[in-house]
Every structure is written in structure tokens, then in C-alpha cells.
């Protein structure tokens, strides 16, 4: 068996014209996304469905049987006590814990020596 021999660096056959055009396009898309976020009064509105989905999927590991739709009905006050009501409450608690952790990290960021991770 022969060992892997990587190509010589730096790579000399790069098409910089094509790469610069792609980087410019990516930069423009990021600027548009940043502008979109600036126009939203509360970014939590945009992230809320993703947080709910994460809470549902993570809670399924523990055996919950509720769906995202069930949790949304619970949030709207339409959920009635039934077979999966406790599962829905468990997911709501999980989501609440995610929000509390986010708020806590605003004042107490994770630190690795002198590097602050936000």
C-alpha cells in the first residue's frame, strides 16, 4: 500500500477571475441577508420556528410523541389535555430552557482562556 502524497502547495493553477466573481456574489448575498436582519424588529420572530423544531426533535430522543403542529396549537391556546399534552409541555419547557440559556450567555459568555465565544 502506498501512502497518500498531497498536491504541492500553493496551488498554481487556480482560476482567480472565477473565484473572485464567486466571492463577490457570496459577499453580496451576505449583505442582503444582513440588511434583512436589520429590518426585522425582533430576530427571535425569525428563529422561533427553528427553535420549536429543535425542541421537538431533541425531545423525541426522550420518547415524546408531540409534533411541531401540536406545540404551535399549545402556544395558540388550542391544545386540550389529552394523551400527548404532557409531551407538549415537556417540549415547551425544553424550548424555554433554550431561551433562558441564550439570555444567560448575553451576560456570561463562554470563555476559553482569554477568548470570548458569543
Structure description:
By secondary structure, this protein is mainly alpha-helical. A hairpin with a 2-residue loop joins β1 and β2. α2 crosses α4. The radius of gyration is 23 Å and the shape is elongated. The mean pLDDT is 86.
Cα(first) to Cα(last) distance is: 46 Å
Which parts are unreliable, with pLDDT below 50 for 5 consecutive residues or more? Answer: none
For the report, how would you describe the main beta sheet? 2 strands, antiparallel
Helix content bin = 55-70%
Q: Using DSSP, what is the number of strands? A: 2
If you average the pLDDT, what whole number results? Answer: 86
Strand arrangement across the biggest beta sheet? 1-2
Q: What is the CA-based Rg, rounded?
A: 23 Å
Order of helices and strands: HHHHEE
Globally, the shape reads elongated
Which structural class do you get from the secondary structure elements?
mainly alpha
Amino acid at each position: 500500500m502506498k501512502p497518500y502524497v498531497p498536491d504541492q502547495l500553493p496551488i498554481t493553477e487556480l482560476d482567480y477571475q472565477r473565484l473572485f466573481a464567486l466571492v463577490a456574489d457570496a459577499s453580496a448575498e451576505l449583505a442582503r441577508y444582513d440588511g434583512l436582519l436589520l429590518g426585522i424588529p425582533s430576530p427571535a420572530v425569525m428563529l422561533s420556528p427553528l427553535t420549536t423544531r429543535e425542541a421537538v426533535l431533541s425531545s423525541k430522543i426522550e420518547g415524546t410523541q408531540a409534533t411541531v403542529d401540536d406545540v404551535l396549537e399549545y402556544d395558540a391556546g388550542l391544545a386540550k389535555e389529552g394523551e400527548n399534552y404532557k409531551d407538549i409541555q415537556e417540549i415547551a419547557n425544553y424550548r424555554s430552557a433554550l431561551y433562558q440559556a441564550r439570555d444567560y450567555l448575553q451576560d456570561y459568555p463562554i470563555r476559553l482562556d482569554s477568548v470570548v465565544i458569543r
